[in-house]
Specification:
Blueprint (H helix, E strand, L loop, with lengths): L18 H17 L3 E2 L5 E3 H8 L4 H6 L2 E3 L6 E4 L4 H10 L8 E10 L11 E10 L4 H18 L4 E7 L3 H17 L6 H6 L16 H5 L10 H16 L5 E2 L11 E9 L7 E7 L3 H4 L7 E7 H10 L11 E5 L2 H16 L4 E3 L6 H11 L3 E5 L1 H6 L2 E5 L7 E3 L1 H13 L3
Parallel strand pairs: 1-5, 7-8, 12-13, 12-14
Antiparallel strand pairs: 2-4, 3-4, 5-6, 6-11, 7-9, 9-10, 10-11, 14-15, 15-16
Helix pairs in contact: 1-5, 5-9
Bound molecules: adenosine-5'-triphosphate and magnesium ion.
The site of adenosine-5'-triphosphate has 17 residues, from strand 6, strand 10, strand 11 and helix 11.
């Protein structure tokens, strides 16, 4: 016998006992996005590899180490499985001139791919939900995204997510800071690790992100971006803070928060939970006013964030959020030739009335079928045998409550089930 194949490491099946949680979450996400007037955009999973190196930056973890790239065997194109959603959103906006008629509030959801070391909360295929608002320059939009996130945690019943924010200023401040950083780290080059040395000239801001304990002192004492930031950027940041305060959204300012990607300016933020250990960031994002032009489009301001859905679900589980979805309403148990003839018709009637219905398949006596009905998790068994056919009735038995079974005509049975269902939490 040949060896059975397995899923790729770090890429998980989501099995039927898990999908109800995803559906529970997705239903709430969709209602939340609709409440804020965001529109969905769906882009392909595969893009030109150059899209990501151009948008995210050559010298970033994602592009350097984590991206699944491959050559299209048929035409030699360099392609990549998307590692994130923003670059493709921007590409699509430019390609289809979506900002022509004014600004857009968009969202996307889907699988992303990064070749990382798999561990709890970190996978090679994972799912993000992201929002992007394109064409809005005002700080109100940065704040809207934070208010939106806070609203989502509330809708889901989550607590203990803390918000860290920072400002990266505008591009001139970043450029000034960048040259000061290069001068500073060059003066301390012997104290830098290999990663930092490599980034010294290409992406010195990322050195501030270093988790290497041996470098913490030198990072702490590095020139601060805050010292370069002009009054306009400070006013932008203060507006965001004012709106957060007005909404009673607690936050801390973390001057070391720079985010992993090159494209951010002004506000950046992360929502973190201490309950998730090292993989504690559930939602991250910020403003990226330069990206549209960097990607060859007409300049347009933008901001957005992405939520890691696996981490969000993990947090819901840890906080014991009730994520149950409604059970199937009916399992039809049937016996006899006449019944077999009618059950399809009855199942159809039930389904048309909005009652979810499982039709027993595979024969067996009543007792065996009732066991299956019970195991299915359905609310009711509908029983149809020769007696029922003769009386033109169906027998209804509650599978969850200890009630006597009772025969009804189909219309009454439907009414009974619907009434019962609407009385359930
Ligand atoms: P981290 O610091 O955890 O590597 P990141 O900065 O690489 O995160 P982003 O690119 O900002 O993450 O992605 C947004 C969110 O997507 C993260 O906050 C996280 O919740 C989720 N995420 C990122 N990478 C993974 C992964 N490999 N597995 C599961 N979720 C992920
Ligand atoms: Mg990462």
């Amino acid at each position: 016998m040949s060896q059975a194949l397995q899923a790729v490491r770090g890429m998980n099946d989501i099995l039927p006992d898990q999908t109800p949680r995803w559906q529970w979450l997705e239903t709430r996400l969709h209602a939340w996005l609709a409440a804020f007037g965001y529109q969905e955009i769906r882009t392909p999973i595969v893009e030109q590899a150059a899209l990501f190196s151009r948008a995210i930056g050559e010298v970033t973890d994602i592009v350097e180490k984590e991206m699944y790239t491959f050559t299209d065997a048929l035409n030699g194109e360099q392609l990549a499985l998307r590692p994130e959603g923003t670059a493709a959103c921007v590409r699509a906006i430019i390609e289809h001139s979506l900002l022509y008629q004014g600004p857009r509030r968009l969202w996307y959801q889907g699988a992303m791919f990064r070749h990382e070391r798999p561990q709890k909360g970190r996978y090679r295929q994972f799912h993000q939900l992201g929002i992007e608002a394109m064409g809005f320059a005002d700080a109100e939009l940065d704040a809207e995204h934070l208010v939106m996130a806070a609203d989502l945690w509330q809708r889901l019943g989550l607590s203990d997510l803390t918000l860290e924010i920072n400002t990266l200023g505008d591009s001139t401040a970043r450029a000034r800071h960048r040259s000061k950083l290069i001068a500073y780290f060059t003066a301390h080059e012997s104290a830098l690790d290999e990663d930092a040395r490599r980034r010294l000239h290409s992406n010195p801001l990322r050195i501030l992100d270093s988790k290497n304990p041996a470098m913490q002192a030198i990072v702490e004492a590095a020139p601060k971006l805050m010292d370069e930031i002009d009054d306009i950027a400070i006013a932008h940041f203060e507006t965001v803070q004012r709106i957060l305060r007005a909404h009673d959204i607690a936050f801390t300012i973390n001057p070391r928060l720079v985010r992993g990607l090159d494209y951010y300016n002004h506000t950046v933020f992360e929502w973190v939970s201490h309950q998730l250990g090292a993989q504690g960031t559930v939602c991250a994002g910020g403003r990226y006013d330069g990206l549209m032009a960097q990607m060859g489009g007409k300049p347009a301001p933008a901001c957005g964030f992405a939520i890691g859905l696996e981490r969000l679900l993990l947090l819901c589980e840890i906080q014991a959020i009730d994520m149950k979805t409604p059970p199937t309403d009916v399992y039809i148990v049937h016996q006899g030739e006449a019944a077999q003839h009618h059950v399809w018709q009855i199942a159809r009637q039930l389904r048309q009335a909005g009652i979810s219905t499982l039709l027993h398949c595979g024969g067996g006596n009543f007792k065996a079928q009732m066991k299956k009905a019970d195991a299915s998790g359905a609310r009711f068994a509908v029983i149809i045998g020769d007696n029922e056919i003769a009386a033109q009735q169906i027998t209804l038995k509650s599978l969850r409550l200890d009630l006597p079974q009772q025969a009804y005509c189909a219309a009454d049975a439907i009414q009974h089930i619907l009434t019962f269902r609407s009385s359930q939490p």
